[in-house]
Amino acid sequence: MRGVLRPPRGTHQPPALWQVVCESRFGASPRLAGELWDSYVETYPHTSRTTRFELDRLSTQCPDWAVEQRVRRLAEVVTPQDLLTAAQRLSPEGCPRRRDVRAFEETVLRHVNEAGDWR
Questions:
Q1: What is the model's pTM?
Q2: How far apart are CA 70 and CA 86, in angstroms?
Q3: What is the dihedral of CA 86, 77, 54, 107, to 10 degrees?
Q4: How far apart are CA 85 and CA 81, in angstroms?
Q5: For the segment 19-71, what is each residue's pLDDT rounded down to a tens digit?
């Protein structure tokens, strides 16, 4: 019955900028970036709409000051904990964990300060 209530994994097309950020900033493969988006959408269905909107806004041309503002807004919407939670759903603790997911989590943590916020 799961497929009746929610689409199967892999049906949420990630925003292009999500792919770019996951691959270039966090070292994810294209496949992992897509899986992370699916997990993120399933974990945060309402926030994911805002995230897509903010990513789309960042993809449009605007003055430099607006880019900085939009990046700050995106950092508020997608927290490090959100990404780590989405990754953990792909490879839960207590089971043998996927190497690519662990590497992604480690890279995310390198971009986090002591308070758990983005640097």
A1: 0.88
A2: 22
A3: -50
A4: 6
A5: 999 999 999 999 999 999 999 999 999 999 999 999 999 999 999 999 999 99
